[in-house]
Amino acid sequence: MLMFIIRRLLQTIPVMIGVTLVVFFIMHLVPGDPAVLLAGEGASKATIEGIRESLGLNQPLYIQYFDYLINIFHGDFGVSLKNSRPVLDEIMVRLPITMELAFYSIVITIILGMIAGIISAIKQYTLTDISVMVVALLGISLPSFWMGLMLMYFFSVKLQILPVAGWESWQNIILPAITLGAGGAAIVARMTRSSMLEVIRQDYVRTARAKGLREKVIIYKHALRNALIPVITVVGLEFGSLLGGTVLTESIFAINGLGRMLVDAIRMRDLPMVQGGVLVASLIFVVVNLFVDIFYRFFNKRIELN
């Protein structure tokens, strides 16, 4: 297990370098000059060129990239072009908010998705099964930003029982977490149903029933444990999707997290901030996938970790 973790951590190095390479060059292809945005309207060419020189933007792209890469290995993510603050400090302020939102969202995804999937599998081809799958299909189809606006309209504007925006109390968490977690819950429900149906048709489940074991014991102790492997994969991937989904959700609910920071940074062409934010989000996604692989072995000892 230890060697597996070490190998996976070493594999993250080329992945992270690839992320920095893609983000760096994509941001330089986006129209607009950061120096012009910083100088403001009506600034002289001399002022703009001075800003470009001070930021190193007049250097060839490959030199800018290698300088940036060397700084990252020294723990220096650069300085924000917007407020002149260290990028890493800005990320560390915003990241806990985004991680908290993603955590509550993934809890909703797992609980609602697995309960709905198990019920649907047990009640296969009944009205309950059809109803759950229709709701799951709607959850997958509806855009998260539309759902967020509708939740805000009904619960905040009409009923006035939850705050419209912000991140001050536990009440502020409810609507954004549901907005992010609903789509993932629908996917997990469909995967849980499919996996459970495959498992409960196995011979060992029939044997357990023939021995007279209670149905709850068969479902939750024998069938569910073996059906969790594909579900864990989906949950791991959904966590990565949640990190991407926070960009829209945080903007809708005015949450000062990493996603909203990235939106503002892209708008301002704040290259160091965008690159640092994407790099941290990518690293989190890689670590989550590492934990997913470890959970495989926990739920099924026959799986070899290579």
TrEMBL record:
SUPFAM superfamilies: MetI-like
Transmembrane segments: 12-30, 101-122, 134-153, 173-192, 227-253, 273-296
InterPro entries given in the database record: BPD_transp_1_N, MetI-like, MetI-like_sf, Opp2B
PROSITE patterns to which the protein is assigned, alphabetical: ABC_TM1 (PS50928)
Residue ranges occupied by any ABC transmembrane type-1 domain in the UniProt entry: 95-296
Membrane topology (UniProt): Multi-pass membrane protein
Gene3D superfamilies, A to Z: MetI-like
Compartments reported by the entry: Cell membrane
Pfam families membership: BPD_transp_1, BPD_transp_1_N
Record CDD domains: TM_PBP2
Statement: the UniProt record of this protein carries the keyword Acyltransferase: no
Domain of life: Bacteria
Keywords, in A-Z order: Cell membrane, Ion transport, Membrane, Nickel, Nickel transport, Transmembrane, Transmembrane helix, Transport
Assembly description: The complex is composed of two ATP-binding proteins (NikD and NikE), two transmembrane proteins (NikB and NikC) and a solute-binding protein (NikA).
NCBIfam families with a match to the protein in the record: Opp2B (NF045470)
Family the UniProt entry places it in: Belongs to the binding-protein-dependent transport system permease family. OppBC subfamily.
Protein name: Nickel import system permease protein NikB
Species of the source: Bacillus xiapuensis
